[in-house]
Design brief:
Number of helices: 9
Strand content: 15-25%
Structural class: alpha+beta
Strand order of the largest sheet: 6-5-4-9-8-7
Length: about 260
């Protein structure tokens, strides 16, 4: 029993009170459908002063998590559309991961390589699923990790689904830092690379993000719309180059299987 109390005490030390209050406020707003709630009612519900509650509301309003209507004393608050977008994304990602994991396990087993899945978020590739190959070298690709798209296979194949004009805007915003001597750092050259990706249906990271590490990736579609990319990763020196075409064929087939299951 003392151990449990100690654990709870340690956990409590990491809780952010202001964030907890904001979540409490959102929980109260979920109980309303159309009418919303006023400032005084919300402050009573979450046990905060009006100024403190108002500050939380303004922060949530700025991010679209809460919306408001009315003026003065009649001003009321309700849940914002940003939550709907987050919820929709969460549902799609959960369904996507559930469908993909079995195929990724089979891919890793067959190729003896680490397989991953990533989605494009704000121009960057975000890792959402991963399966380590049997006895494979462990790579630094934790879930939630963001990767710059110009030097990752998953990033390339996801950007290849966009127009050159859209890609240019993304690259100009994110930049193209040189990670290794093989990293492509010129936009025109990178756009030519994407042209090859579109033709072949797969992308290669040939030691462009990390020396000695190579990846092959292909795109996953849901109802003809690109939703993710899957890849396999290995050490380039272990016959990776000679297996490139075979790996591409396997990854493309796996991506097609996931796409088919997604409809």
């Amino acid at each position: 029993m003392p151990c449990t109390a100690s654990k709870e005490k340690n956990t409590a030390a990491y809780k952010v009170k202001s964030l907890g209050r904001a979540l409490d406020l959102l929980d109260v707003l979920t109980q309303d459908e159309q009418d919303g709630r006023g400032l005084a009612e919300l402050s009573r519900s979450i046990g905060l002063s009006k100024p403190a509650t108002y500050a939380i509301l303004q922060t949530c309003l700025a991010r679209g998590i809460v919306s408001d209507f009315g003026e003065g004393l009649q001003r009321r608050y309700r849940l914002g559309l940003a939550l709907a977008r987050m919820g929709d994304r969460a549902i799609k990602n959960v369904g996507l991961i559930d469908v993909a994991m079995a195929e990724l396990r089979k891919l890793s087993q067959d190729l003896q390589l680490t397989s991953r899945m990533a989605v494009l978020e704000d121009g960057q590739a975000v890792v959402v699923a991963r399966v380590d190959g049997p006895g494979a070298v462990r790579f630094d690709s934790a879930l939630g990790r963001r990767e710059l798209p110009h030097c990752s296979a998953v990033g390339k194949v996801l950007l290849a689904q966009k127009s050159d004009a859209e890609v240019r805007v993304i690259l100009e915003r994110l930049g193209m830092p040189q990670r290794t001597t093989k990293t492509i750092v010129q936009i025109p050259r990178f756009l030519r690379e994407l042209g090859n990706v579109r033709l072949g249906g797969f992308a290669i990271d040939d030691e462009e993000d990390s020396e000695g590490v190579a990846c092959v990736a292909a795109c996953v579609f849901r109802q003809s719309k690109p939703v993710a990319a899957i890849s396999v990763t290995g050490l380039r020196g272990r016959n990776f180059s000679s297996r490139k075409n075979d790996l591409a064929t396997a990854v493309i087939a796996c991506a097609a299987q996931i796409s088919a299951r997604l409809g």
